[in-house]
Write a structure and sequence with these properties.
This protein has two domains: 56 residues, no CATH class; 303 residues, Alpha/Beta hydrolase fold, catalytic domain (Rossmann fold, 3-Layer(aba) Sandwich), CATH 3.40.50.1820. The chain is 34% helix and 17% strand. The strands form two sheets. A nine-stranded mixed beta sheet has the order 5-1-2-7-6-8-9-10-11, sandwiched between helices. Helix 4 links the parallel strand 6 and strand 7. Helix 5 packs across helix 6.
């Protein structure tokens, strides 16, 4: 039987242990153990009890108001967003992945099984915004694992489908409008997310980053201030004419729009680049890129030559990037693992070299991306314990 501490009323003697237990809610484990130890000193005296109560209360407030811890969100939602392509004012689409509440969800979308539920309730908080730019003729769904994993870490991720350069529509491939238009798509997606009635209350407009894969890396670099040098592409294609990806138009981009120029977006504060196409950027062309960069490439990339792209980029960026070179990995290692049906349809995209663990690489990549963006942009901010309404 616990006896009341001398000088305290029976009611107070009951209240303090209960208070200490209540204050554990939301505390890190180390603080819980500390407060439990205080509770063990309950019979020592009134001064110790008061000191423990005050300290545990203050520590509890700090824990409850601190940045959201990694991996806090078990569930992810997705939201379809439509806005106008700034090049022709036709509708373009994006999927937005966000931290949600409730049980984890699974959805089938475009042949992919995605760990997100459509219009699931948004978790309460203010979250950094990341915008994803896919590669030439690609789809953002090929990087769904990255988008949903970062949403669970407390980010809102907008995955854009670039008009004229995706798996359904290649009409702008090899054109100036594609080179300069893709960054405009990303800028428009940022603006759309900040103005979306459903998303806007939960987006921190001061915390914006861009993720670029393959040609999406080129897009991300332009957004952060890089200036493409078209002569470098011509020279490269004379040197390596058999590069059918970069040199599909023999190094001469189709001048379909003479009114477009590279436009940086000052809202972009950090970049993550995977197997980036970056051969058009020399040291002077990259001088305007003054943001932190996480850079990945496979050392067996047969599509985007690393000596002229990722390796050269790592040396020339004015702020030294965090460069991760993956042993034995090819260009497509960054794409989501394939289903049996996808293996049949596109074996080259689904098959890695012997000894390359695609899923293991993804686990490491997701963890590093979350740490990088939290350092570069800041942590998600929890507002309170309530959930967001639709």
């Amino acid at each position: 039987m616990n006896l009341p501490v001398a000088g305290l009323s029976p009611a107070t003697g009951i209240f303090l242990p209960l208070f200490l237990r209540w204050s554990y809610a939301g505390m890190p484990g180390c603080l819980i153990h500390w407060c439990a130890a205080c509770e063990g000193f309950f019979t020592v005296g009134i001064a110790m009890v008061r000191l423990c109560a005050v300290l545990c209360f203050c520590l509890g407030l700090v824990a409850l108001s601190s940045p959201v811890e990694a991996g806090q969100y078990r569930s992810v939602g997705y939201h379809r967003m439509t806005f106008l392509d700034p090049l022709d004012l036709q509708p373009m689409k994006a999927l937005v992945f966000y931290p949600a509440i409730g049980r984890p969800h699974q959805s089938r979308f475009g042949g992919y099984r995605i760990a997100a539920g459509e219009e699931a309730k948004i978790a309460t908080g203010r979250f950094p915004l990341l915008v994803l730019s896919h590669g030439n003729t690609g789809t953002p769904l090929a990087l769904h694992y990255l988008a949903t994993s970062l949403a669970r870490e407390g980010f809102i991720v907008v995955a854009v489908l670039h008009p004229g350069d995706n798996y359904k529509d290649r009409s702008r491939l090899g054109t100036l409008s594609n080179l300069y238009g893709r960054p405009l798509h990303i800028s428009e997606a940022i603006t759309a997310a900040l103005g979306d009635r459903r998303l806007a209350p939960y987006v921190n407009a001061e915390q914006v980053g861009v993720i670029g894969y393959s040609a999406g890396g080129e897009t991300a670099l332009i957004l952060s201030g890089a200036q493409p040098d078209l002569q470098r592409l011509r020279d490269y294609c004379k040197e390596r004419p058999h590069d059918l990806d970069a040199c599909s138009t023999q190094g001469e981009l189709i001048a379909d729009r003479d009114d477009l120029l590279p436009e940086a977006d000052p809202r972009v504060k950090a970049l993550m680049l995977m197997a980036p196409l970056s051969l058009m950027f020399g040291r002077h062309a990259l001088a305007g890129v003054q943001v932190p960069t996480l850079l990945y490439s496979g050392d067996k990339d047969q599509l985007v030559a690393i000596d002229k792209n990722a390796d050269a980029l790592a040396r020339k960026l004015p702020i030294m990037p965090d460069y991760r070179l993956l042993a034995g990995a090819g260009h497509f290692v960054f794409m989501a693992p394939c289903s049996a049906e996808q293996h049949k349809q596109m074996a080259a995209l689904c098959t890695d070299a012997e000894g390359v663990d695609r899923e293991g690489i993804h686990r490491s990549l997701v963890a590093e991306a979350a740490r990088f963006f939290k350092r570069a942009l800041g942590y998600p901010e929890a507002i309170d314990g309530r959930t967001a309404a639709h």
